[in-house]
Amino acid sequence: MIEASGSELRVLPLGGCGEVGLNATLITYGDRAILIDCGALLGLHNAPGVEKAVPGFEPLYTGGRKLEAVVLTHGHEDHIGALPALLADLDVPVFGTPTTLDFVRSRLERDNGVPAEARSQRGRLVEVPLGGHLGAGPFDIEMVRVTHSLPDCAALCINTPAGRIVHSGDFRLDATPAHGLPTDIERLRALGDEGVQLLLSDSTNSERHGHGLSEAVVAKTLETLVAETSGRVVVTLFASHIHRMRAVAQAALKSGRRIGLVGRAVERCWQLGVQRELLPSDPGLLIRTDRIGTHPRERVLVIASGSQGDWQGGFHRIAQGQEAGLRCLPGDRFIISARTIPGNEPTVRKLVNLLLKQGIDVVTDRMQPVHCSGHACAGEQAELLRLIRPRHFVPVHGDRAMLQAHAKVARTVGLAEDAMTIVEDGQSVILRGDTVQRGPDEPVSRRALDREGRMLDWGDVRDRNKIGRTGLLACSVVLDSRGGCVGSPAVTFRGRRESSMVVQRISRAVKEAVDSSPALGADPREKHIRAAIRRVLKAEKSVLPELQIHQHLVES
């Protein structure tokens, strides 16, 4: 490990290396820096009330760095979801392609409850077209077109005084994308011919061999399934996947169906797609949600949000049959055009079983090619490495297993062991001349946010977990002026049941503990009360719940 000096280039992941999501990479030359992406971590498990986590951004406030810009590769939540938290503290320009910044504006509106124009006064949003350049301090950055599951996605060619870095962003080498041009292979090859010091590349699908399925195949499959269905068709997907939504819309048009949108997320993304002329703008194509049930079933296709089964999404609403007009009937077909994210399987499985009990034909990507990933598989990753031919390689965007699998891919194309470095969040690499070495580590944390974007304390989240596992015991003690008990302490359990006998024993034990040491202060007295409760529950062989002690002093 070497120490950084002023004229060296340093790469420090603040997130996205060691987990899937939270993508944010800080690149520093001297005391000037850019942040590549600013993503959130979604779907946290054992974190009740936590909507997402965002990086703590500690390195941005230490070491005298000046953040010149945030540069975005695309508009998915795991790449832009932390922007509201960052822009609440820092006034910094944000660069991205036009569609990417459309997603940013939508995110800022939802997180802050104010128009994007007002919010962007603190984070200046600057559109850069694919193929365009931007300057930020000592960095000159080119937006290179790549295919992903969103329009206008970019890889970044970052020219610095210390050498050239290419950041792949999330990418596919799909020769037949659903819409738009494929990844700019020739430009990537030209960059490789000119020389690339360091490649940072997406590792998400590095454990999947070969090449991924093409969006063109998925579009054809959807068209066939829609045409074959005698009843209503429902398609649930990732709302931001505008290319997939376009394929679904085209299938609906070819089969003479009108479209109903169920879920705020798909409504927002449909509007964005229409504005960018990516989706049909005919107002007669859409059916109001509350009018879906009035149309012949064979003439309707519903696009539903919530493909991961979240309770507010359209998938959940339809499967639960909460609204008569949206309820599925035998003869209908429900297509899940999305991969189920690990951890969400039980929820999605439950909803699928509900639909099957109603006699609905459910189609998933395990049965038919109705979904393909927007991330490169190992064969495509190898192809990119051969195009770029970097002197050094750092895999990013993935957990440890994915990062190591990507390094294994790099070995198969001839990259030497000393030309690869695997780092996780807070571990830096330093580009010095023709060498890349591990640099000093820096502390990076995660901040928990609730659905309204408010910051939560991780200690409170741990308390919620414990209460969920063991319940809550609240003990209220009324004290006289001498520190003795007034009456019997009130003992209440929440989230679990105990017999009245146990409750009485706890109350008596607490009273005895308080009366035995009336001169104690509030904190030592609380320790005595907690010890008394623990002794009773231990004697009863009962699990200790979260304890909440209330002391009330009554003046005589």
Task: Give a short overview.
The protein is of the alpha/beta class.
Question: Your description of this structure?
Answer:
With 556 residues, the protein is of the alpha/beta class. It has three domains: 9-210 and 373-455, Metallo-beta-lactamase, Chain A (4-Layer Sandwich); 215-363, 3-Layer(aba) Sandwich (Rossmann fold), CATH 3.40.50; 471-553, Ubiquitin-like (UB roll), CATH 3.10.20. Helices cover 30% and strands 24% of the residues. Helix 5 (185-194) crosses helix 11 (378-388), helix 6 (215-228) packs parallel to helix 7 (242-254) and helix 14 runs antiparallel to helix 15. Residues 113-118 have low confidence and may be disordered.
Descriptive terms for the model:
556 residues; alpha/beta; Metallo-beta-lactamase, Chain A; Rossmann fold; Ubiquitin-like (UB roll); 3 domains; eight-stranded mixed β-sheet; six-stranded mixed β-sheet; 15 helices; 27 strands
Strand and helix map with partners:
Layout: E1 9-15, E2 24-29, E3 32-36, E4 41-42, E5 52-55, E6 66-71, H1 77-80, H2 83-87, E7 94-96, H3 98-112, H4 116-119, E8 125-127, E9 133-136, E10 139-146, E11 153-160, E12 163-167, H5 185-194, E13 198-202, H6 215-228, E14 233-236, H7 242-254, E15 258-262, H8 264-275, E16 286-287, E17 300-304, H9 314-320, E18 333-336, H10 345-357, E19 361-363, H11 378-388, E20 392-396, H12 400-412, E21 427-432, E22 435-441, E23 446-449, E24 455-456, H13 458-470, E25 472-479, E26 490-494, H14 500-516, H15 522-539, E27 546-553
Helix pairs in contact: 5-11, 6-7, 9-10, 11-12, 14-15
